[in-house]
Amino acid sequence: MELGKNCWVFADGDLPPRGSEEPYGHEAMMIVNSGECDAEIMMTLLFEDSEPKEGILLRVPAKRVKCFRMDEPLGKEGYQIAPGQFAVIIHSNVPVVAVYGRLDRRKDMAYYPVAGYSV
Length: 119
Hints:
Layout (H helix, E strand, L loop, with lengths): L4 E11 L9 E9 L5 E9 L5 E8 L3 E6 L14 E21 L5 E5 L1 E3 L1
Antiparallel strand pairs: 1-6, 1-8, 2-5, 2-6, 3-4, 3-6, 6-7
């Protein structure tokens, strides 16, 4: 049985600024590829006040899970997301399951997923 979808959208990315009492937390995209073929994923980032960043290529091997930290360089070009609000759209050549999570270490630590939309 094939698991997942080819397109996922996460509307609530919001990287915290870096501060003197690191780490405040992080956000990450976890992608599961349960299929027989490697997943080639094209990521697009949408921002409130700037042009979209398109064409960030990510890879997830067959029958693997991969975590992409959003506060670290992404893709082959090493694109760095600036702190603040953004949305993520991913398109995969094979069905995948994607979950977007946030770890907030301010005061009382919390980790929670951000709901995604898939087609």
